[in-house]
């Protein structure tokens, strides 16, 4: 099994247009998201939705939870939100959460 962590940037919607007279609404804080998902089809669907969401500033994805934990512990990844698959080999979602809680105190 190949392990990958990659980042994508959200695309601007081609369907939104703003006239000169419109005043943009105040923006909420954009969020960065980490997706931990071992199924490529599920990851692709979720990444597609996240990349189109106007409040998502950055998306990182990992197909191996143990690698994602290493990246989080090292400070390389500092997401605002983690979307986590529960049923994964080697480290399941509940084990991931236990390990994340142990390292979270020193990072965030």
What this model shows, in words?
With 108 residues, the chain is of the alpha/beta class. The chain has one domain (31-107): Response regulator (Rossmann fold). It contains three helices and four strands. Helix 2 (65-74) packs parallel to helix 3. The longest helix has 15 residues, at 93-107. The two termini are 31 Å apart. The model is unreliable at 10-19 (pLDDT under 50).
How would you sum up this structure in a few lines?
Helices cover 35% and strands 19% of the residues. The protein contains 3 helices and 4 strands; from the N terminus they run ββαβαβα.
Instruction: Give a short account of the largest sheet.
Output: 4 strands, mixed
Strand share of the residues? 15-25%
CATH architecture: 3-Layer(aba) Sandwich
Sequence of strands across the biggest β-sheet: 1-3-2-4
Distance between the termini: 31 Å
The level 1 CATH classification is Alpha Beta
Helical coverage, percent range: 25-40%
CATH superfamily: Response regulator
